Every structure is written in structure tokens, then in C-alpha cells.
Amino acid sequence: MGKTKRLPSIYLAIVFIVLYAPIFYLIYYSFNSAGTMHSFENFTFDWYREVFQDTRLFIILLNTLVIALLSSVISTVIGVVGAIAITRTREKRFRNALLTLNNVMIVSPDVIIGASFLAFFVMIGIKLGFGSVLISHIAFCVPIVVLMVLPNLEEMSPTLIDAARDLGASTWDVLIRVIIPYISPGILGGFFMALTYSLDDFAVTFFVTGSGFSTLSVEIYSLARRGISLTINALSTLIFLITLFLVIGYYIISKQGMKLKEGGISQ
Amino acid sequence: MQVKTRNIYLIPYMLWIVLFVIAPIALIVYYSLFNITGTLSLENYTRFFTPVYLGMALRSFWYAGIITGISLVAAYPAAYLLTKTEHKQLWLLLIILPSWINLLLKIYAFIGILGYYGPVNSFLDFIQIGTRQILFTDFSFVFVAVYIFIPYMILPIFNALEELNPSLVAAARDLGASSWKAFLRVIFPLTLSGVKAGCRAVFIPSLSLFMITRLISGNRVITLGTAVEQHFLVTQDWGMGSTIAVFLIIAMVLTMLLTETVGKVN
Question: How distant is the Cα of A226 from the closest Cα of chain B, in angstroms?
Fold first, then answer.
């Protein structure tokens, strides 16, 4: 009995160790004064200092954050409108077509999105750089927001809208005061997803970035292609911590959202 | 009135669909019809069916298949055991957390881990096997890819297992099925939707991710994705790149059709 119980925990432990080992490996060597990812010499903060003193890197970091925030806000707006448009479409075939096109973007490999956007931007004459990266990020975040918001909209009773209309609310009032508050958990989830997708994206950005503009992922790629540099390790420690905060924040917010919903709007 | 309000919401969304879903894909197909000198021809397609490209495509499918298979075999027990733990949502979150860390950082970590002086080689040396070149081999490519994709396999299987009614398993056991038989005839078929979703989430990216091949396997492994990147950004042969992309899209659609769960869309 004891043996059969232990084996599963060992397996799970191995999975967790393998999943986290590379991350902690990176973090561990970010403190290595030897400048290599093997044979730890002395403890040092030099690589962190280098990250913070590197103005070029700082600008790239700012670029990445600006792109992520702008693209997730704009894609959330378009995504919410899109989800409402889908739920309002009564005709089944048209609705399914919309959903399929929405999902095409989600399952499309990054290289396809990147290559096709590059062709698209070159054809219509958009200069590669900040603009093209921002537009691409908005474009590939929209379907995720749609999918996050759609379940909330679908469980919303149409009588709520009818009631608001009967009481004299305009279309705008209905949207702002009835629909948006109701689907806010989905909107928040969609926004966070868009944010992480944008921060995480490498392949699409790599295609449409041109030469003057760079985001963190693209920078890491070009650094990593040149070999090992412990500034990447220091950077990854910082990114890991930020990711951790984001995930915990999202977890808490979504838990609260669920509680609110259970307490407030349940039947 | 009803029709009018519907149109207002549809306009921006349709605009997005036309501009960023339909137009780019149409452009890819359009470019695939032009050869490198810019004349309209099916040359790229005939070139795709020469041994060089066809072999590359088949190898890419072969690797993607291996990666998907290993991920499935490793992920299923993990997902199953996760459903049996206390605080399973927390554990699940911990499984997903690494997938939120930038992909490139994780790949970069393996440059150190699998490198000549890395811990894996030290270990091999320690157990008397001796150091060897691990980086830039097929093995390192498959291993890193499995590492990257495994959370995407665990998640849908976990969800499918959670939806499974435990009394069905209990009934099978009561009726005399061994635990292996109960798994084979009850649990696995009922969680097939999760398995399919997981395979889809792993197979398509394994065909197309070019960062892993570039950073981990040198130029030993060339996937369809690497070839697209190569043609678009290095050799600037957009026609051939688009042709490969067209086949990648076809592969994607076929994978979707094969793994589509009939009836319920979840």
C-alpha cells in the first residue's frame, strides 16, 4: 500500500523538478561572477547592475511594456465588441463562420501569422517598426479576448437587456451599464491573457519588427544566438518575478470575481 | 432597430477579420504563385515536391509526431495524478506557471544545461559514460520541445479527467474490470477529447516553432517553421516561403479536422 502511494508522488515530483529546474538554473547562475553557466565561482550582483545600467535594454523594456499595454487595451475593446457581435448573430451558419475565423487566428502557428503579416504590411506600405508590431499584437490578441468574453455573454439572460430597454435605456446605456458590468470577469480575463500573449510573443514580432525597433523577446533571441551572456540570466530572474506577481494577481482577482458572481448574480 | 444595433457591433469585428485573418492568408497563397524572379508560375509547388523539400517536410512531421507522442505519454499520468491531489487547482497553476515564462528564456536555459560543460554532461561524466555533444543533436531538440509543450498537453487532459464522472470508473471496477482495463475501456475513451485537444496544442507548434531549432539544434533539424523563417527573412525568397506556409496551413487544417471533437465544442 505504502509503495503504490509513493510512486505517484515521485512521478509528480519528477515532473515538477524537470519543469522548474531550467528556470532555477538560470536564476542560480545569474549570480555567478565567472560569467558562465557552469562552475559557479563567486556570488555577485554584477549582471543585475549591468541590466539596470544598460539604457538600450531599458528602452527595449519600455517598448515591450508600451506595446503590451496598448495592444491589450485596444484588443480588449475590439474583442468585447466582437464577442457581442457574435452573440447577436442569430443566423447559425454565419455565426459559426465567425467563430471559425476567430479560431483560425488562435491555432495558426506563429510563423504563419508573422510571415503573412509581414507580407501584408509590405503590400499596404506600413513601415516596419513600432506601428507594425503594435498592429500585429492587437490583431493576434483579439480572438483570445473574444473567447474569454463569449461564455460570460452567452450565460447572460436576454431579459436583462429587454428590461433595461423597457426602462428607457439607450443602446449605449445598455452596453455601458448592463452588458459591460455583467461580463467584467471575462473582460478582465481577456485583458490579462492579451497582456501575457503580447509580453510573451516572439515569433510574430520577429517577423514584423524591421531593424530599428526591438522588444524584449527579440532582444533575448539575438543575444542568445550569440551565446551565453549572464545579463540574460539576470533579466530572466526579473522576468520570472514579474510573471509570478502577475499570475498571483490574476489568480486573486479571478477568485474574487468568482466569489462576487457566486454571491451576487447566482439564481 | 434590432438589425441596426447588430450591424454596429459587427463592423469593427468584421473589419478585423477581413484585414488580419482573411487578407494575410490570401496574400500567402498569392505570393506562393510567384517564383523568385517574380513571374506567375507553379514552380514553387513543383519545387516543394522535390526530394529536398519533401524530405524536410516529412522529417518535420516525424519530429512533431515524436514530440506529441512523448508529451502525451508523459503528460497523461501527470494529469491523472494531479486530479488525485489535494489543492489540485493550486498544483495545476504551478504546472502552468512555467508556460508563462518567456519561451526564449527556457530555451536559452537549455543552452547552458545541455552544453558541453553543463550539469547533464557532468553527470554523464560522473557515471562513467563520459561527456559528449548533446546540444545540436536531434535528442536535444525533441527533449526541449517536449519540455516546452508538456503543460499544454497536461491542461486539457486534466480538464477532461475532471469532467469524468468517478462513478463510471467505480461501476467498471464493480463489474470486475481490472484497473488497467477500466483505464483502457472507460477512462481513456471518455477523456479522448482532452487528449485530442492536447495533441492539437502540441503538434501544430512542433511543426512550426523555429526558435528551438535555431538555438538548440543548430541547423541539424529543419522544421517547416524554420524553412518559412529562412525563406522570408534570410534568403528573401517569399514565393517559396509562402508555398511552405501554404502546406503548413494545410497540415494545420488537417490536424484540426482529425482532432475535432464531434458535437460538443468546448
Answer: 10
